[in-house]
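Marked as duplicate of an earlier ticket. Keeping the data here for the record.
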Amino acid sequence: MQERIFKVLEFNKVKEQLLEHVSSELGKRKAEHLMPSVDFEEVQQWQEETDEAVKVLRMKGNVPLGGIYNIRPHVKRSIIGGMLSPHELTQVASTVHASRQIKRFIEEFVDENENLPILASYVFRIIVLADLETTIKNAIDDNGEVLDSASDTLRSLRNQLRTKESRVRERLESMIRSSSAQKMLSDAIITIRNDRFVIPVKQEYKGHYGGIIHDQSSSGQTLFIEPQSIVQLNNELQGIRVKEQQEIERILIELSSKVAENGSELETIVEVLTEIDFMFAKARYSNRMKASKPKVNNEGRISLFKARHPLIPADIVVANDISLGKDFSTIVITGPNTGGKTVTLKTVGLCTLMAQAGLQIPALDGSEIAVFDAVYADIGDEQSIEQSLSTFSSHMVNIVDILKKVDFNSLVLFDELGAGTDPQEGAALAISILDYVYKRGARVIATTHYPELKAYGYNREGVINASVEFDIDTLSPTYKLLIGVPGRSNAFEISKRLGLQDDVIDTARSYISADSNQVENMIASLEESRKQAEADKEEANDFLRSAEMLHKDLQKQMIEFYEQKDALHEKAAEKAEAIIDQAKAEAEKVIRDLRKMRIEKAAEIKEHELIEAKKRLEEAAPKIKKSKKQMTSKDKHVFKPGDEVKVLSFDQKGTLIDKTSDKEWQVQIGILKMKVNEKDLEFIKSPKPVETRPMATVKGKDFHVSLELDLRGERYENALLRVEKYIDDALLAAYPRVSIIHGKGTGALRQGVQEYLRNHRSVKKIRFGEAGEGGSGVTVVEFK
């Protein structure tokens, strides 16, 4: 793609925003070289990478990516035998440590949650170099200083240094504390020049101490002298320092060789960390934009739901639904200037470039983007003073270049096509250019204020008109895109609201042809109808969402009810069986006592009488019915619509609505409608011959109480207020149990919620969710 396109569509500004979310120099370099791909499979792979990183951030909130450095130059220099500095070795150790951290983090996440094939494959390539990291950290501290513990020799030399320095200081301190020193020294201090200990002596007393002059003050009145009595000690000290430096170099060379030994593994670590840092930079940027992963196709289809321009602040940007490439391949946006037409063009172009670069797009889930071989744009004021070109000429130079290159897999964006010249000629040229690009099979969005192009959208198959809504009441655009509705002039309405006399406006209207007036009236009617249709659709969607939520929750409650019912039946059966066993045992005891009495007291009791008594006892034991009630022949009834019946499988009353087949009826149970086999129905009564009232309709969006309350992202105080209201609503709805989703996080919100629930008089008990219910991120509440 042309570099000019990135500037025109401001893709470079998107990259600048992305750079704010990288964690290392490695990720920064990767982001700086970000370019859209024209390879369909590569774009899919990039989108999957970003989506995996978004999943991790959504679950964990953050990723340990600190302490990563670009150690490639260090590794290369070590391989060719170079000695790395302590600071460079510290960066190597830090990067190795970061690789271990991210490897463990991803592996634990995969074990606990879900499969992340791309991230898992990356961290699998990381070789854990714990020994190298430990060796470097044992020798060099975080500030890049070689530690005494790096070697026994270095420890010994530094002990000697400290001893010698102590002796030199003691010798010099005795000099500066003497009575004569007060007049001969400029200041009673010990200082260092050229790595040797010296004292500041006044110029006139320089011969008193002898020794070596190392420096003098700017005025020349003070000389920094190494007294003759400590020259030998300083020489010995300097000799130890030389040996110390040699030992440090030996240690650094040894550590550098260990880095070289692990060169290929370190190169792999750098490569993997670069990719992972870049992935999570894209994910953080996606979270900032509240973006989503688009579906990707190579068939030229674009379908954006509530798409927003990523560079316009979220509090003022207007979201639009935009589709292209399915029912039509060209959109012509007409209407006055300052209406947001150019923003629409840039939104489509920028979302396309972002998606092809592996970034998620600022639109709702389910949006779809095509992978184009090229994106062309002619947008903005292209006047070139340097080339002595007018605005029209500059546009035409650009358009000529586009027409030479455009093909079936191109996206073309024209802003104010044909502007800058005679209106009639400009409109004719615009139509011709659109025809040419359309025949080449490209996807096109063009903006224009020429009324002639409104008819173009109606007369060409595969072309549709669009406009940006304008609010006459506020005299300002709403920036809402209306596909299928051409733009209309609002000059007369605006002028009237601004106070222009009616007779002037009427005179102006008389100059407009009847055809033009009819078109404008038709457009106005279309806009009014569209607004009403959108309002009706939104209201219908609200009812549908509420009904679906209620249906889902009722189904869940019914399942829980019958599970509880079955459990109670089973418990009752077990209790009955225990009673029977107890009765049988008592009977056996009675028989034994009777036999004993017969033997001991010679009672006249026959054996067969005892057996008969035992049989009677067994027959007296209660029987447990375990089968459902079956309808007998006398229960049979000819069902008809309106009958009140009992659905045996659900043990619920309902009303017959209609017979759907020979053996099935549609039954209304509360607000639920379901098909039920006739064998599962029990007749209760027929409807009374009176006028039936329609079922009550519940209106509004807020009548439904969900079985779950989601508190994630709430502030602590607001969350507790929501919990209090929700528990009251759930109790009024007679729910046996509900779930409160508070997430894991720091645990403060979870602790506060559970403390409130423990003190609530209607709460029977609380527990964490099971593995399938959300674990410790969810608290399940059971009511009394």
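See parent ticket for discussion. The mean pLDDT is 82.
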